[in-house]
Amino acid sequence: DDFASPELDSIAPLENLIFRKAVLLGGLDAVFEDVVVPNSARAREAIRNAVVVGGGTAQWHDYFDAKRGELYETDALLPHGSYGMGLYTTGDKARTLLVKHLDDLRALSAVSSETWVVDWRTLKGLPFKALYTAPNRPTQFRMVVAGRADVTLQDGSAMPDLRIEEDGQRLYPVRGVKIALAGTRHFFVSTRHPDGARVFAALQKGLRIMRQNGEIERMLMRTVGAGSATRDWIVLNKR
After folding, report:
1. Nearest to 90 by CA among 24, 125, 132, 140
2. Which of 92, 47, 36, 9 is nearest to 187 (CA)?
3. Residue scoring higher pLDDT (199 or 165)
4. pLDDT for position 27
5. What span, in angstroms and rounded, lies between the C-alpha atoms of 170 and 164?
6. Is 24 exposed, middle or buried (0-12, 13-18, 19+ CB in 10 A)?
7. What is the DSSP letter of 43?
8. Which of 29, 62, 87, 91 has its CA 20 to 30 A from that of 108?
9. Are 147 and 73 spatial neighbours (Cβ–Cβ below 8 Å)?
10. Model confidence at 221: pLDDT above 70
C-alpha cells in the first residue's frame, strides 16, 4: 500500500506489485514464487509454455496478437498512447544536451533492442542520426556510458532526480522531454497452465477494483512516462 520505496525505481517492479495486489484483491489466496528470467522475451516464452502461470510485469499488446490461444490478456493498464519513456544519458550529457524539438534528435544516436518491438518501432520513426541494437539494459547502459551511443530510451524512476541504475552504471534523463510509445500494456496469463483460468479471473477482477479506486494510476504516476514530476514535459513525437 506504500509505493515510496527507492527500490521501486522503474515501471517493472511497480507492475509486479500491481499484478500481485490485483490477484489478491480478486479473491485468490495466492502465495507468489518468482521465476527469474533474463529478458522479456524469455518471460513471454515461460508463460506460453506454462512454466509459470503469468507474468509479473506487463507486456505490449503486439505480442498477444502473435500468440492468441496460448495467452490470456488482461485489460490495458494504460490507455493507448499514454505510455511515455525518457531519453537517458550520462550525467554530464543530461546537463548539456539541448533537446526541445523533434529535429534536435538528428544530432544524437540512440541504443535500444530490436527485439523490443514497440520501443524499436518508435525509435525508427524518430530522426536520430544513428540507431543501435543491444540485447539488454546492462549492455545499453554500458554503450551510453562509453559514448558509443548518446541516449537510450528507458522507463523512468521514482528517485527525486529520476536516475536509473544497472550493474553500477547510472543514467539520467534529458530533462523536459519524453517519447510516447504507441500501444497498450497488459498482463499475460498462460492458457495451458492448470491454474491459468482462475488466476486470470482473479487478476482481471482485482485490476478493475484498482482502476476504479485510482490505485493503478497513483502507482504508475511514479514513472517518467506518467509521473507528476514530468507531467509538463514535452512529448517530442506527439501527433
Report:
1. 140
2. 47
3. 199
4. 97
5. 6
6. middle
7. H
8. 62
9. no
10. no
Single-letter residue type at 180? A
Supply 159's cell numbers: 528517485
Provide the mean pLDDT of the chain: 89
Separation CA 105–CA 15 (nearest Å): 30
How many residues belong to the chain?
239
Q: Which three cell numbers stand for residue 204?
A: 482481471
Contact between residue 156 and residue 146 where contact means Cβ atoms under 8 Å apart: no
Cell of 215: 490505485
Close Cβ partners of 127 (under 8 Å, ≥ 6 residues apart): 102, 103, 105, 106
- The owner of cell 549492455 is 139
Confidence of residue 224 (pLDDT cuts 50, 70, 90): very low
- The residue behind cell 524469455 is 42
pLDDT at 85 over 50: yes
| pLDDT score of 8 more than 90 | no
Q: Is 2 exposed, middle or buried (0-12, 13-18, 19+ CB in 10 A)?
A: exposed
At 153, is the secondary structure helix, strand, or coil? Answer: strand
Tens of pLDDT along 120-130?
Answer: 999 999 999 99
pTM score of the predicted model: 0.78
Closest CA to 204 of 51, 76, 43, 82: 76
User: For residue 38, which of 133, 119, 128, 136 has the smallest C-alpha distance?
Assistant: 136
| Opening angle at CA 41, ends 36 and 45, nearest 5 | 75
